[in-house]
């Protein structure tokens, strides 16, 4: 118990050190990634991982949970205050389990749900055919228009025809704002539960640069590690009454959504919560409540818009023509390079992105026509609009000269030098 990681397991310690250097020496532009603070890292790497605490604060199936209860209560209270809801469950291990719990709480097996098609920017858990959501429920998928914009009239018609019990709204590759009021009217027209999956945009919602679904959606699910800049994890938020913890609610209805959600998470789907993760979520929520977080969220969007402008000047095609949030979906069709080759060339230049399908893509998901770019992580490093123009130039150079290995190596060196001005973590973190 006294040896350090480096002493006991130099292979793993070595790989972690290399990954730190990779993060430090490159430009991290995957829109769902971010860099957590040292306080968040410390909570996540703490002795809380040693403790079992199945149940909820005040009603556990294990002794010794006095301090874990304090931590989970703090995390729940901070989430409730920050988002303005009456109930928060902070135990889902990550986004997919959170969406699974939302389905488990709201639907009976075989009932109908609707969600945005994966290849149009949706998520696996919103009804994809081989995911639990497509196998245990009757899943209907909706798509964006060919221009990439969500077509609210078409969605209203499809919802009216299909009459789902649950409507998922949320995306992994949608560069525009969601109109929650319209979506609420659409879901209410057939008495469907509206589940807003704000995993990508939670930090923007808190920062006031994306409209909040609170008051419009019945249930809100979110991961905690994207724009919210916490550890990997998730939360489920809802308004309503919490009847006795873990016992069935007096009735299954909107009034008792908190009870339905808590029962779905535990004992419905999960065992012991990951207390180290809960503590790190609590710390991240404290950070997100600080005034500086609003500036951060606003800067993410300013940066995405500046990057979009520069890429458009270089002749890139952006799905929907630009962005209102933290991400850009680039259609590479006119650049004579596929998404996989672009991802690989950018990776070699120290710019980490991911290949992505575009609406109505003629290519396959493993080598689609697009790439997805995001600004949350580079904004956490303090980069501003002028930097985005420089990055846009480098992306253009890599895509144009992707077959020229020497050129890519030279750009790699330029990127390495460039990021030296934006230090990330102290060595040895
Ligand atoms: N993996 C997430 C993303 O990259 O958007 C979605 O789950």
From TrEMBL:
EC number of this enzyme: 2.1.2.1
UniProt modified residues of type N6-(pyridoxal phosphate)lysine: 226
GO CC terms of this entry: cytosol
Cell compartments where the protein resides: Cytoplasm
Pfam families in the record: SHMT
Residues noted as binding (6S)-5,6,7,8-tetrahydrofolate in the record, renumbered to the chain: 118, 122-124, 244
Annotated pathway: Amino-acid biosynthesis; glycine biosynthesis; glycine from L-serine: step 1/1; One-carbon metabolism; tetrahydrofolate interconversion
UniProt-listed InterPro entries: PyrdxlP-dep_Trfase, PyrdxlP-dep_Trfase_major, PyrdxlP-dep_Trfase_small, Ser_HO-MeTrfase, Ser_HO-MeTrfase-like, Ser_HO-MeTrfase_PLP_BS, SHMT-like_dom
Keywords, in A-Z order: Amino-acid biosynthesis, Cytoplasm, Methyltransferase, One-carbon metabolism, Pyridoxal phosphate, Transferase
NCBIfam families cross-referenced by the UniProt entry: PRK00011.1
Name listed for the protein in its UniProt record: Serine hydroxymethyltransferase
Organism: Candidatus Uhrbacteria bacterium RIFCSPHIGHO2_02_FULL_57_19
Taxonomic lineage: Bacteria, Candidatus Uhriibacteriota
Gene that this polypeptide is encoded by: glyA
